[in-house]
Design goal:
By secondary structure, the protein is mainly α. It has helices at 3-9, 13-34, 37-40, 43-54, 58-67, 71-84, 89-108, 111-145, 151-161, 163-224. The chain starts with a helix and ends in a 19-residue tail after the last helix.
Length: 243
């Protein structure tokens, strides 16, 4: 008996299991494409932004972040905007964390769909088996009333009912592996993203200290600078040597 015949004998819930497997594979491929480190956390871009901040070229760094649509660029842009408004470390960190939480949620959203398919598939299979067993016992009772009970027919009904459980496990096991794979990749990217974001907060904090020190030094220099003469001494209206 081939797979097609087994599928046909499994009952209508086999289509639900098949549909869930298609959904799971589709979202796995989508997340596999989206959760690429080069797309979310380009290392060359992060190093360039850090270099600009160290040189205190924060306006140029913000412009580059706004041109780049990666997740880390959106997070860094939030911190740079807060810094540009003269905010302190706590506000800069809060801005970075707010955007970071939103990006992390977006990254992990469809990953959970793959996990849901892995969890639901065996339950659908079990439901199919339970429904099949109910039908088997109903037929058994009807046959018993008619005096035509046979162990062969009873056994055949049981193995047919178990087909959905087997198919549910066939879908669930690989889906669980794929889910754990995506979850691990997502978590590693998130950890590295958090480290880079907090590193930017530290760099902006240092830049703010230098900015405040420069402002204080400039104010002190202005206060200590000698006052310029307002004008030359006015000449007398009468010449003392005049006869």
């Amino acid at each position: 008996m081939d797979v097609k015949e087994l599928f046909g004998q499994g009952g209508p819930l086999m289509w639900a299991i098949l549909g869930s497997s298609i959904i799971g594979v589709a979202f796995f491929i989508e997340r596999l494409w989206s959760l690429q480190r080069a797309r979310l956390l380009p290392r060359a871009f992060v190093d360039r932004i850090r270099g600009l901040v160290v040189k205190r070229k924060t306006s140029e760094a913000l412009l580059l972040c706004e041109e780049n649509r990666s997740s880390i660029a959106l997070i860094m842009a939030a911190g740079l905007r807060a810094y540009g408004l003269g905010r302190g470390r706590d506000v800069v960190k809060e801005s970075v964390e707010e955007v970071g939480e939103r990006e992390v949620a977006r990254m992990g959203r469809n990953v959970e769909i793959v996990g849901t398919v892995a969890a639901v598939s065996p339950l659908l299979g079990l439901l199919g088996t339970v429904v099949g067993m109910i039908q088997v016992f109903k037929k058994f009772v009807d046959a018993y009333k008619q005096g035509m009970v046979g162990p062969d027919a009873f056994a055949e009904g049981i193995w047919q009912a178990l087909i959905t459980t087997a198919y549910g496990l066939v879908v669930a096991i690989p889906m669980l592996v794929l889910y754990k794979f995506l979850q691990g990749r997502n978590e590693r990217i998130v950890i590295d993203m958090e480290e880079d974001a907090m590193g930017l907060v530290d760099l902006l904090d240092d830049a703010a200290l230098h900015r405040d020190a420069d402002a204080a030094r400039s104010a002190k220099d202005r206060d200590e600078a000698p006052a310029k003469p307002s004008g030359t001494k006015a000449k007398s209206g009468v010449d003392e040597d005049a006869p």
